[in-house]
Amino acid sequence: MPREHKSRREVVNAIKSIPSMCDLLAIHDGHFDYELDLEVIVYGRNYGGKKVGPYVRLFTYEPGETIINEGDWGGNTFYVAVQGKPDVFVNVPGKGNTKVAELPSGTQFGEMSVLAGVPRNATVRAPAGQAAQILEVNRPALRLLRKLPKFGEVLDKTYRSHGKNSIVEALRASAGLPAEMVQPLAGIAQFKVFSKNHVLIRERAPVDRIFIIKSGWIRRTHERAEDFLGDGHCLGLEGVMRDATWPYTVTLLGRTEVLEISIGKLRQNAPLREGVVRTLGRFAAPEDVGERVSFEPGVREKILAAQERLIDTGLVDGTNLLVMDMDLCVRCGNCSMACHKIHGQSRLTRRGIHVTRLEAPRPGAIQNVLSPAVCMHCKDPECLTGCPTGAIGRFTEGHIDIDSKTCIGCGDCATQCPYNAISMVSRKKPEAAAGAGFAFKLRDMLRLNADALPPAVEQTDDLLAVKCNLCENTALNPEGSSRPAYGCEESCPTGALARINPKEYFTEIGQIQGLAFLDKTHAVGHNIHRSDPPRRMLHVAGLGLIVLLTAAAIAGLASYGLGGRLAGFLNMRWITGIVGLVGTAGVMTYPVRRKVYKRRAGSLRYWLLAHSYLGVIGGIMLLLHGGSDSGGALTTALMISFDLVILTGLFGIACYVVVPRVMTKIEGEPLLLDDLRSRRDELQHELAEIASTSSAALGDLVKKRVVPRFISFGYLIRQYLKRESLDEAVRVAKEEFRHGASGAADDQRNLERAVEAAVTLRRVDALIYLHRLLKAWLVPHVVFTSLMLALMVVHIIQVIYFA
Fold it and tell me: Which neighbouring-strand residues pair with 262?
């Protein structure tokens, strides 16, 4: 372990010896030029009783001791060599860790992890023969140190130098660039960083440079055609061997890192030119725009639209993204409740970015995906920019998290996050619910009403920033876990939620990403929307058990009848009854599991599948158990209640399968039930206002023709059957009433407003009814189940007594 120097004077002396940072101690007229910055960086300050800083620490590393490791995530700190010359090692295939450089005193290192959000690209150790003194600098110090002219200049120069060297080294290590060409190539190359909307290449300009896209997304346009490309591509290779002009224009869609290689200088070195062409050949982007997306026009248009949406919204730059397949989501809210139970306050809001895409390259393979307003652990997170204490940062596994001990509740991270994924909550823990004993838990498990919403945060002091931390440091992910578990995903009954790597999940993005520089990311969940082996196994096992047990029961009944003895007191009536009872008992484990949030108990989607198949098995066995004689009144009531349980359960399964898919066809961007109700109230008020404030003729027209026409049962059914977009429905409706108003322009505008409000209101009504339908079956199902269980207990007691 390195030894930390606690003396602030030693830290000040170390800063004084670093050329790029010594200006922090500059004095003018007897005062420090950067007095406040110096105080918070070196000593720390109290703001309203909360400590901020210090942002630097001084360490001595023993000879050979590791300072940073290649591949580790270290987005919160970078380092400056004060004394000694640390050695730099990279992992070379077939050779292991190989020393590639020494860092002289005053050299910064590790800054790429902070500025680019990537893992460490090298291992740095204290030299074997002597100790090394290293200054550790925390991320929040950057915005203060950048005020120093020398520091900003050195940081940018170091970043560009390390960026260039890392790309060239990657070409050598993974692409086969000969080692003797590394230095000549680095000598004629430049590493550059461009901002969004920069035009990198203009059509018909001479190809005088090779561009290697290290990170970022680009749009290529040629005449009316366009396509998108991601990092790992090489542009301009065709200009090396012959004079050429660019056949397209390239515009950057976000912050982009690029390596530029001068073609003029490359041509002067024939061996280097041949080596570069050979090395970069397999990374060359297609010359023709759209060459890699050779689908029929309609499919290609939808793929391009999805790519643009994913890039513009930034979803592709998440390193661990939560997505909801809206065709599977039954709007139960169990994901958000699980988050609330685990963390004390929900960090998952079921509003966010909606994407319509093609799962496969055919027009009908449409998937509606919602990325909720929950942290996606961005590669280049904006929330880290303004944190004054460094409480929010990129931690060990590469995900973004907040250290509650150092968070001062300023809210800077919440205001910086473009996805509304960070919330401010009270530090005071809510009081535990009164009477949380066995009776309370039993009532809680059996209740049908929805969980109460947590109270709103109204205070403005003593706050804490919270966000999704991938359920780290909770009972869901105990130390030594073989795989990560996420509470929202584990508690989804249909498997609609999945934690994914967007570049792997969205195949349209994989199509435009190059082969070079594939960064490793931290662990994400399995892509359960594409492949879920346990789910397939449960389907096979469930169907197999149904067929096997049914066949065995029918064969036994054919051979022995219901009363024929098999062994001892056992006959087919006892056997079918016992198997049916076991199936029923297995069915009742699902509502118990549904209330388990804080520990691993298997994904709820598997429990729901087992619940369904065990219900079918229990139903078949008990129907066979009853035979053709329903028995007395008690037994008859039991069989009727059992049939009703089966029927309501089957209706519920049908609702879960059909309703979400109908909703996604007509709702556009998904809305919560509360949002829909609010929108309905707004539209009703708007219609009433138009009818009351317009001319008498227009008011009568709205009341007698517009409202009856669109607020009708037939128009409601049309919403489900026609499944047209809302814009199209409004257009058709306006055309229908195009000549309905008088010639006055105000009347015509008000009529169009009324028609649009009425059509939209009916669409909202259709969605509200679907939301209700998803829960309508649950109350009778639970009531009949409770009745059946009570009658079954009486029946079992009766049978045992008379037996």
Answer: 209
Average pLDDT for the chain:
87
Q: 480 near 415, Cβ under 8 Å?
A: no
CB-CB contact of 698 with 750 (8 Å): yes
Residue linked to tokens 């309370």: 440
Q: Which amino acid is at 590?
A: Y
Instruction: Report the alpha-carbon distance of residue 705 to residue 701 in Å, rounded.
Output: 5
What DSSP string describes 86-147? -EEEEEETTTEEEEEEE--TT-EESHHHHHH-----SEEE--TTS-EEEEEEEGGGHHHHTT
Residue with tokens 């685990």: 342
Q: 370 and 444 in contact (C-beta within 8 Å)?
A: no
Which two structure tokens, joined as six digits, stand for 583?
Answer: 């199936």
Residue 776 burial by Cβ neighbours in a 10 Å radius (0-12, 13-18, 19+): middle
Tokens representing residue 616 in the block: 């079918």
Contact yes or no for 747/741 (Cβ under 8 A): yes
Residues 17-64 pLDDT 10s: 999 999 999 998 888 889 989 999 999 888 767 788 899 999 999 999
Question: How far, in Å, are 289, 542, 777 from residue 645 at the CA level?
Answer: 59, 19, 10
Query: Cα(386)–Cα(175) distance, rounded to whole angstroms?
Result: 39
Q: Cβ distance 630 to 639 under 8 Å? A: yes
**Cβ-based neighbours of 665, under 8 Å, separated by 6 or more:** 723
The pLDDT confidence band at residue 454, using thresholds 50, 70 and 90, is: low
Q: Are 110 and 79 in contact (CB under 8 A)?
A: yes
pLDDT value, residue 439: 66
| Residue 237: count of CB within 10 angstroms of its CB | 22
- Work out the percent of the chain whose per-residue pLDDT is above 90: 49
Please report the pLDDT score of residue 449 as a whole number. Answer: 60
How confident is the model at residue 733, as a pLDDT? Answer: 92
Q: Residue 221 — very low, low, confident or very high, per pLDDT cuts 50/70/90?
A: very high
- Which residues 6+ apart lie within 8 Å of 657 measured at CB? none
pTM score, whole prediction: 0.85
Instruction: Return the structure tokens found at 618.
Output: 């229990």
- Say how many residues make up the chain: 803
The β-bridge partners of 653 are: none
Q: What is the mean pLDDT of residues 586-592?
A: 92
Note the pLDDT of residue 803. 65
| Distance separating alpha carbons of residues 585 and 229, to the nearest angstrom | 55
Q: Which residue has the tokens 């596994």?
A: 397
Task: Decide if 89 contacts 100 (C-beta within 8 A).
Answer: yes
